[in-house]
Amino acid sequence: MRGTIRVINLNLGQVTRHFLGHGSSINELKFHHVHRELLTSASKDRSLISWNVLTEVQVYNHAGIYGHQDEVLSCDYSSDGNLLATSGMDHAVIIWDISSRHAQLALKASRVFDMKMSNRPFPTMRLTPIFITKEVHSNYIDCVRWYEGFIVSKSCEDEIKIWEPDLSQPNELSPSPPILCMMSYPVPQSPNWYVRFGLDRQKRFMAVGNQVGKIILWDLDTLSNEPKITTHHPKVFSQCRQVAFSPNSSTLVAVFDDTTVWRYTLQAPEQAVQKVQTGETD
């Protein structure tokens, strides 16, 4: 069913929760790294919902007149967990504050709410954003991530940008505040949308794939937009859709349009390819 979220217990190997609330497909899911029971979903229906996966209630609804006006493609929590950044097909990046007193009270209430004991649904809180901009990209923004106090965002414009949102006047939503772009990272041959870059856990490395199967990796500590590694295997020619780092940043996994998954060993980039596909390796 479209718009259904399934929570899998990895120890049991079973689906233990189902969540229904969106009216269309879900483009990204993100667990909060402080309040680990909080799961946020970004949907094609122009909304985001933050769920308490333990009590199975909708804690926050991120939508409405000041929300996204088209499909929501990506979301990410800041390192302190107070802010949620979202992006979508409306060319907008929106920032939501979940650290306010009312938002925290809603989260606490969700932890003790028992649907079986209540004859009313949980009073989901509708959040209003504190920041909106359409000044960074002129096309779909298909990936957004926090980098300390900065935002890293990507569109189908052959580049990734790092920029600083002006949060000095939260809730002043119009006109859009000026944007200070800190760095632009060229991504050649990347006209397609719904392509996700990856940041490692330490926020030192960033990687993305392009239309012809190349993987480009940067060392953010160098403050240079020159790639540290550009790798390409002769058997890969399709669009790379998403990359992800292992917890220790030694391995990169990439997913391609030809239905293959490739593993890159970054400790030895000259040997950096192994295809992972139903027991088949090269």
Task: Give a verbal description of the structure.
It is built from one helix and 23 strands. It starts with a strand and ends in a 6-residue tail after the last strand. The chain has two domains: 186 residues, YVTN repeat-like/Quinoprotein amine dehydrogenase (Methylamine Dehydrogenase, Chain H), CATH 2.130.10; 92 residues. A hairpin with a 4-residue loop joins strand 5 and strand 6. A five-stranded mixed sheet has the order 3-4-5-6-10, with helices on one face. A four-stranded antiparallel sheet has the order 7-8-9-11, with no helix packed on it. With 282 residues, it is mostly beta strands. The C terminus is likely disordered. The longest helix has 12 residues. Helix content is 4%, strand content 42%. Keywords: Repeat, Transcription, Transcription regulation, WD repeat. Pfam families: WD40. Belongs to the WD repeat ESC family.
Residue windows where pLDDT falls under 50 for at least 5 positions: 268-273, 277-282
- The rounded distance between the terminal residues' Cα atoms is 36 Å
Radius of gyration: 20 Å
* The CATH class of the largest domain: Mainly Beta
How many strands in all?
Answer: 23
The CATH homologous superfamily of the largest domain: YVTN repeat-like/Quinoprotein amine dehydrogenase
Q: Kindly report the spatial arrangement of strands forming the biggest sheet.
A: 3-4-5-6-10
Structural class of the secondary structure composition?
A: mainly beta
What's the helical proportion of residues?
under 10%
N to C succession of SSEs = EEEEEEEEEHEEEEEEEEEEEEEE
Strand content: 35-45%
Largest sheet: 5 strands, mixed
The CATH architecture of the largest domain comes to: 7 Propeller
Mean pLDDT across residues: 90
Number of domains: 2
